[in-house]
UniProtKB/TrEMBL annotation:
GO terms for molecular function: GTPase activator activity; small GTPase binding. It comes from the Eukaryota. InterPro entries: DUF4116, Leu-rich_rpt, LRR_dom_sf, RanGap. The keyword Glycoprotein does not apply. Keywords: GTPase activation, Leucine-rich repeat, Repeat. The keyword Repeat applies. Gene3D superfamilies: Ribonuclease Inhibitor. PANTHER family: RAN GTPASE-ACTIVATING PROTEIN 1 (PTHR24113:SF12). Residues 43-91, 93-126 form the DUF4116 domain. One of its GO terms (cellular component) is nucleus. SUPFAM superfamilies: RNI-like. This is DUF4116 domain-containing protein.
Length: 624
């Protein structure tokens, strides 16, 4: 009678007891299981079927099944609240409790109290998908702050905000976020600062970098090289460097960090990357000729830096392990190849290019394996070599701040046979004639025409350049290419490169020779830079056609706030283009327009001023 009454009139005589109970669960819920026999409530297969219909049926299952992980997870999968009916042992089992929460977020309400209040467990559960609404309130606040920090990581990394990302990482450390949460943020920050903060340079000077037991790279003391040259010596392999020749990376880092924080007069030690030709395969400088030049330059540079300052030089023969190499040295050498481009691309390093090697070179007796090796053989020019072309091209990516501060010094531009001037004059005279940044495809074409001692180096350098170019482009906000004599021939190459600099906020091209043909190329590239706020084309050769092309594309430069076209050759027709632009409102963000010292007539200047005022009022500073 009870079966008939409770199960909606289904006579027990027409159904087996187990099917009647399952039907009752369908119709009336989990309490129907109370009518099952003790044997049925202890029957694992039957209970699993019951739990698949209503997880809360676990309340009426035999106690032995409340210890069964599969049984309880079946119940939780149907209803997270069912976990409250599991044994205390299972609810306190960390691994099991996490699996239960993965099945149903609200199971978090019924895990053991010590787990609900365990930050590591809760974080693991949230990462696995647990909804915050079921998290213990104090930890819910912590988790919300965590999610906000993770969002800040994403936003600041996407817009290349180094300061913001650095602060977010510090906040995350203070908030107690695990390293797994910063697994993306830390590498993102490292990429953003790889070529403009010195920390990335010190990293590869440490043993253990990249998994190698030896430091991938060492830097040589400039003062030691001066002494070596004075003694008539020649460059040793890295393996043969005496300890006193090698910089301690920790010392260099401490010195740089102290200078950044303290108001001291002494400058930090300066890092220099030297690009030079190997005169012979057996030794890059058998007679010490290039070492003598390097020594002379070092002495002048040290005098310019003042007392107590030394140089830290990257010279491949001394800085990288040379053949023959042990297995450990070979591993360190492979690691060093991954970072070799950083020494030339980094904006904190000076690049010295020895572009005028001797025309011929012989080997001294102690290096000559045969009498024929003592004979002079022709030396391939600097410009004809693959490695030196690669090093120079890498160095040109971020090297220029104008001739007086150029970090790219072409020592081949010294007058042969004449005494070297002091550093300031030498830097001015030897400021390299540099090219616009090369996109990888262009460099690959150029490298294919160069000489390599090892043919496989072509593919190696192409890949190294591709990676470096895109890393530099992805992290650079400002480009300064002033007084380089660039004109219409260089504009297409510069424009092609600029398209890759997605975070670009400002570009300064003052003192070049860009004319009308350049304007279209450059502003086609600028139009796609959503963060670009400042363009300086002061003192070029832009005329009316350039002004027309600029005005036609300015509406696509939606973030551009400052446009400096002063000291060009723009006349009344060009001014008329700007008047039309103002009248049409095609200047969404412009705050400053510099047109002073062009060829605009007095009356046209007044019309231009009136149009700008009518359009932008006090929001625009117009310099005429």
């Amino acid at each position: 009678a009870a079966m008939t009454t409770h199960f909606g009139g289904v006579a027990s005589s027409t159904l087996s007891r187990d099917r009647a109970v399952l039907t009752g669960i369908d119709d009336h819920g989990s309490w129907a299981l109370v009518h099952a026999t003790g044997a049925l409530r202890a029957n694992r297969d039957f209970v699993i079927k019951a739990l698949a219909k209503d997880g809360n049926s676990l309340l009426y299952a035999a106690d032995s099944l409340k210890l069964d992980k599969e049984v309880v997870l079946t119940a939780v999968g149907q209803n997270g609240h069912a976990l409250r009916h599991a044994s205390e042992h299972l609810r306190a089992d960390r691994e099991f409790a996490l699996e239960a929460v993965k099945r149903h977020s609200n199971a978090m309400l019924f895990v053991a109290a010590e787990l609900r209040e365990d930050k590591d467990f809760v974080l693991e559960a949230v990462v696995a998908g647990c909804s915050l609404e079921y998290v213990w309130a104090p930890l819910r606040t912590w988790c919300i702050k965590r999610e906000n920090l993770l969002e800040t990581f994403r936003e600041t990394a996407d817009r290349g905000d180094v300061a913001g990302l650095s602060q977010a990482i510090k906040d995350a450390e203070a908030h107690g976020l695990p390293e797994s949460d910063m697994a993306v943020a830390r590498p993102a920050l490292a990429k953003l600062v790889k070529y403009n903060r010195a920390d990335s340079l010190w990293e590869v000077l440490r043993p253990g970098a990249g998994g190698s037991s030896l430091a991938p790279v060492v830097l040589v003391k400039g003062s030691w090289l001066v002494d070596l040259s004075g003694r008539g010596g020649r460059l040793p392999r890295r393996q043969d460097l005496p300890p006193e020749a090698v910089w301690d990376g920790e010392e260099l880092q401490r010195d740089a960090d102290e200078y950044n924080l303290e108001a001291r007069a002494r400058r930090p030690h300066k890092v220099v990357a030297v690009s030079h030709c190997w005169l012979r395969r057996e030794h890059p400088d058998p007679h010490g000729e290039q070492l003598k030049l390097i020594s002379d330059i070092i002495q002048r540079r040290l005098r310019s830096l003042g007392s107590g300052v030394d140089l830290a030089l990257f010279l491949d023969y001394c800085s990288l392990f040379q053949e023959p190499r042990s297995s450990e040295e070979a591993a360190a050498f492979e690691e060093s190849l991954k970072c070799v481009s950083a020494w030339y691309a980094h904006e904190k390093t000076e690049k010295w290019l020895l572009t005028r090697p001797p025309a011929t070179c012989s080997l001294p007796g102690d290096l000559a394996a045969a009498e024929a090796d003592r004979q002079d053989v022709p030396v391939a020019p600097y410009a004809a070599r693959g490695w030196t072309h690669f090093e120079r091209s890498i160095g040109e990516l971020l090297a220029c701040e104008g001739r007086t501060r150029s970090l790219l010094v072409d020592l081949g531009r010294t007058s042969e046979g004449e005494p070297l001037p002091e550093w300031a004059e030498l830097q001015w005279r030897c400021s390299a004639r540099q090219e616009p940044p090369r996109v990888p495809a262009r460099l690959c074409e150029e490298l294919a025409t160069k000489k390599f001692a090892e043919p496989t180096d072509l593919a190696t350098l192409h890949e190294l350049y591709r990676v470096t170019f895109h890393e530099v482009a992805a992290s650079t906000k400002f480009l300064v290419f002033c007084d380089l004599d660039w004109g219409d021939d260089e504009a297409p190459h510069l424009a092609a490169a600029v398209r890759h600099f997605r975070l670009l906020q400002g570009i300064e091209l003052e003192g070049n020779h860009f004319g009308d043909a350049s304007a279209s190329e450059l502003f086609d590239a600028f139009a796609g830079r959503e963060h670009l706020r400042r363009v300086v084309l002061r003192a070029n050769r832009l005329q009316d056609t350039a002004a027309e092309q600029i005005c036609a594309r300015l509406y696509e430069c939606r973030s551009l706030e400052v446009l400096d076209l002063s000291f060009n050759l723009i006349g009344n027709r060009g001014a008329g283009c700007f008047i039309s632009m103002f009248e049409k409102g095609q200047h969404p963000a412009l705050k400053e327009l510099h047109l002073n010292s062009n060829d605009v007539g007095t009356g046209m200047k007044e019309r231009l001023r009136e149009a700008a005022t009518a359009s932008r009022g006090a929001r625009l500073e117009l310099r005429l």
